[in-house]
């Protein structure tokens, strides 16, 4: 059973596929947000310069000038961040720099509604408080979420992950005797992929999450393993995948040999 103190920090999908995916850290989140703020401020300054040019070139009353100021603020700090986030599927200039993107809490892609809520709330927590509200919220939330993320149901997910090294399952020595009599049936592709991905990423998981997922996978795979060995759950998964891989490899080799013999016979005829 997982530790309640760490349960809120875990970022796991229901299929245990994105086990190694983690939220962007607090300091990287602040750095990415600072880059985005600078970009928005530069756009706003460009609008201000355009207003000054219009005043000198065309001339208009104060009411129109105030309207243009409001439009410039809305475009620079609400419309632009929202449009960039939607069109780039959760990315932005700052998040590209720190290797993150905005996703829903369940790991799915964020949409227009999420981007719009984040942009509107960002006007209050970032620009109205000079970033203080966002920093306080991010410092005390499990996934470095600012208030806009909490309201929209999103967080910044780390997408710049290390390249996975190809992993071949190895039979644990303690189960060598069991392997001689064991029968591991072909598992559904979905279950086999989940077990393989778990074994590849288990070393980078929290101990509580690692033990829980291993136990759940063994319980699901037990219908295809006979007899089920009395061994640690992770060792059982290693043994089952190694045995299944060995037998499937042998079956493929036999199939290739059979096809080669048939081809040779036909050529001889």
From TrEMBL:
Transmembrane segments: 30-55, 67-87, 115-140
GO cellular component, one term: membrane
Entry's localization field: Membrane
Record-annotated RDD domain positions: 25-153
Primary site of residence: membrane
Alphabetically ordered keywords of this record: Membrane, Transmembrane, Transmembrane helix
Signal peptide: none
Topology term for the membrane: Multi-pass membrane protein
Name by which UniProt lists this protein: Putative RDD family membrane protein YckC
Originating organism: Microbacterium pseudoresistens
């Amino acid at each position: 059973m997982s530790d309640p103190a760490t349960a809120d920090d875990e970022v796991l999908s229901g299929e245990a596929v994105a086990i190694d995916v983690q939220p962007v850290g607090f300091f990287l989140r602040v750095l990415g947000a600072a880059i985005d703020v600078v970009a928005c401020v530069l756009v706003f300054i460009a609008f201000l310069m355009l207003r000054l040019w219009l005043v000198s070139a065309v001339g208009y009353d104060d009411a129109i000038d105030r309207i243009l100021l409001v439009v410039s603020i809305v475009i620079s700090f609400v419309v632009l961040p929202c449009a960039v986030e939607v069109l780039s599927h959760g990315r932005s200039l700052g998040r590209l720099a720190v290797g993150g993107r905005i996703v829903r809490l369940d790991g799915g892609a964020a949409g227009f509604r999420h981007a719009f809520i984040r942009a509107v709330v960002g006007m209050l927590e970032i620009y109205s408080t000079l970033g203080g509200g966002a920093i306080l919220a991010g410092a005390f939330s499990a996934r470095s979420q600012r208030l806009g993320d909490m309201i929209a149901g999103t967080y910044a997910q780390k997408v710049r992950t290390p390249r996975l090294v190809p992993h071949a399952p190895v039979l644990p020595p303690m189960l060598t005797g069991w392997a001689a009599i064991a029968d591991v049936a072909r598992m559904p592709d979905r279950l086999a992929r989940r077990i393989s991905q778990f074994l590849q990423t288990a070393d980078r998981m929290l101990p509580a999450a690692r033990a829980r997922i291993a136990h759940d996978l063994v319980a699901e795979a037990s219908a295809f393993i006979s007899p089920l060995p009395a061994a640690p759950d992770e060792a059982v998964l290693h043994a089952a995948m190694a045995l299944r891989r060995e037998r499937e490899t042998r079956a493929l080799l036999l199939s290739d040999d059979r096809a080669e013999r048939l081809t040779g016979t036909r050529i001889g005829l």
